[in-house]
Each structure stands twice: as structure tokens, then as C-alpha cells.
Amino acid sequence: MRQPTDSTAETTAADGGFRWPVRQFSLDNGLRVVVCEDRTGPIAGVNLWYDVGSRHEPAGKHGFAHLFEHLMFQGSAQVGKTEHFSVLQEVGGSAINATTSADRTNYYQTVPSAALPTALWLEADRMGSLALTQENLDNQREVVKNERRQRYDNVPYGRWAEILLALAYPEGHPYHHSTIGSMAELDSAEQSDFTAFYESYYSPDNAVLTVVGDADDAQVRRFAEEYFGGLSARPRPEPAAVAALPAAIDGPVHEVIEEPVPLPRFFFGFRATRFGEPGAAAEEVLAAVLGRGRGARLFTELVTKRELAQAEGSYLASWQLAWYESLLSGMVTPRPGVDAAELHAAYFEVCERAAVDAPTEAELDRARSMLEADWARELSSVGARADQLSRHAVLFGDAERVRDRLPELLAVTAEDVRAAAERIFTPGNRVTLEYRPVEVSVDSEGN
């Protein structure tokens, strides 16, 4: 990953829809800092991306990155359990949260600009001195278990993404498992395992700190040096070698799950180009043309014209995985009385036809408008803007790459989309996960 040097971006007409100046620098300990000054309001978005996600978890330790998303709010040397929230709320902070993906973990908050030193101090304290006590570990393991029950195990179709990943990526691949992880592996891990994971990945040289809003680079540099400058870089394990996957999944793969779900439903996966690589933008436009909204081809054909699918179904979306081959995924639900096999075939017929019938100008304009509106929303708040800058700094080594995002999407041609469909929609590049409803037996006592 290329390390950025000090740079200032001028606002120009060719700014890719990102009209704000960007400043980047690094501390001696390796912490990369991105500053985007915007004086339109007295607030600042603070975003910290750690280059650690479920793809970093070795065998037997699945779920560690997601567990740390929770543990990082459980106190540190000078901050008590859950006080990260309360301190920021007392100074007017909002949008205080964190998320984990296969590729990264991010922590974020929006604060009045006068409280920027407080937010940075809090982030530095938990980066350098997280309270990894046995009590906190046991407590948060239970929290994660409850989250799994609520989001995966005890809701209809809840495990579809987890199962699809396991089918689409081979055993041992960093994307083979989901971020929620294995409860058995979390339970069997020792405190020393978690300490080693924390010391390996939650250090300044593995993070990007972004501040967007009512602050300039001199202020942020001063605060970053004061609060983060004394933290030490730490060694990390050598990443395991990951062989490039074939262009296709080696399918078709068709898995049937029989569960007490309300309706039959299909979920689909197709191997795709990793985010930011040539071809990925065309696949995003392809997904919008085929599967996004009521004007898309899948909805028009399967719901409106043929009346095979439920109105809430028939979508296609890009997962934008960034370090290895990504996925497009889709879903469709048959209408009552419709033969599931007929709908299954019709879905692929519409997709495969896109390799012959390139999108019309009207379809391209619609897709571009939707993606441009998405981008405008991503940049509409200081917090969301900070997240995008952190994303591009971590993935590409340069936050300035954020300016390429919209132009890449708008430059996609009809032929690019057709070629993407030809590449993606082959029988050998297809995973199908089919849910079939089954009745739950109830004994005479209602059990």
C-alpha cells in the first residue's frame, strides 16, 4: 500500500463531486491522518479505520474482529466501561458507533468542534490501553451471542449471507466466514488470544484517523501529536498467502435449506471484481440496471410483466469487497402458486440476456442518476464524508482517491455493462441458496 506524503488538494471543476480540500500526513509512529476542512458548521466528524476485519482472523478465531467492535467501548486506562458514549454525549456528540466488515473495522462520532480534543483523546486512550479484562470478555461474548440470535439464528432467512459466503469462497479463504464468527470459537478462546489480537492490529501504524469539518490541519496535527504521538507501533503477523481465485465459482452450486420460513426464497451469488479494480464500476452499474428498484429489468420482467415474483424481491447488488474477489448477490421470492423452478430459471434468463442486450441510454441514465444520488448522500454529512476518506486511505493508500469514485461510475458505457454481464452471468459462476418452508411440529402441550 502506497504511503501518502503531505499534500493539499485544490477544489476544481474536475473534483469528482468531492469539492473539499484534503490534507494528509503521518506521525512518526505510523498513524496516518486525513483532514478535510469544512467551516460551514461548528461540528467535526471523527473517523478511525483500523485495517483489521474478519479476513484477518486465523482458523479457530473467527469472530474476533467483531467482538473487538464491542470491546472497544468497554473502557480503557482512563475511561470507564461505556463512558466513551457518556462523555461524548455530555459534550454534545452524536452518531457514536462502530461497524465491522470482512475488510476493516471503523469507529466514528460527530462532535461540536470545541469537543474535538475530547473525541481524539478518547480514541487514543482505547487504542493504547484497552481494558481487556476477563469480565469484559465474558460480558461481550454474551452480547455477541445475543446479537447472533437476534440477527442470524432466530429470524427467517437470517443466515443467508453467512451460508452464501461459505458456498462462494473455498474453505480457508479469508471471505469464507462471516464477521459474526463462531460462538464456539469465541467461547474456547483464552484471554491471551484476545490480547494478542489486540496488540497485533489495534495500533497507530495500522490505522487511519480522519477529521472532517470545523478544524484545519494544523489543529488536528497538534491534537494528533499530543494524544496519539506517544503510542508505539507494533509488529503484526505476516498475512497468510491467498491464492487468486478463478474467474468463476466452479458452479453452478445449488444448496437447499428447509426451515420454518414464511415463503420460499432464492438468494444468489456471483463472483465479481474487487472494489476499485478495473471492471468493478461496470458491475455496480450492471447491478443497478438489472436489480435496483421498480424500473430495473428484474422487477419489470419478473414482477410486472410475468407476475412470477413478489414485489419486494428481484434485486441484485454489489458487495464491494476490496481485498480479494468480490460478490454480486441477488434475491427473489415467488408469488403464491408460482413454480419455484420456473422463477429460478427466469431470474437467470433476465441476467444472462444482459450479455447480449446492452443497456439503453435511458437505462444507463437511470443507473447513473441513482449512483450519483448515492454518492451525494455519502458526502452530505461530515461523518459520512470522513468514512469515505478513511476508506480510500486504507484501501488505496491515498485519501485523494475519493475523487475518482464518481467519475469511474459515470464513465461506464453500455458496452462496459454488457461485457460485465457476459463475464459475471455464466452457469459456472453461480451459487443458488434456496429456502423451502417446512412446518414446525407442535405437540399436544404446545411445545
Structure, described:
The protein is α+β, with helices and mostly antiparallel strands. It contains 15 helices and 12 strands. The protein has helices spanning 64-71, 83-90, 116-129, 134-153, 160-168, 183-188, 191-201, 217-228, 280-291, 297-305, 340-353, 361-378, 382-396, 405-410, 414-424; strands at residues 7-8, 23-26, 32-37, 43-50, 94-100, 105-112, 207-213, 253-259, 265-272, 315-318, 326-332, 431-437. The strands form 2 sheets. Strands 1-2-3-7-4-6-5 form a 7-stranded mixed β-sheet, sandwiched between helices. A 5-stranded mixed β-sheet has the order 8-12-9-11-10, with helices on both faces. α3 runs parallel beside α8 (217-228), α9 crosses α12 (361-378) and α9 packs across α15 (414-424). The radius of gyration is 23 Å and the shape is globular. 44% of the residues are buried. The model is unreliable at 1-13 (pLDDT under 50).
In short:
With 447 residues, this protein is α+β, with helices and mostly antiparallel strands. Helices cover 39% and strands 17% of the residues. It has 15 helices and twelve strands.
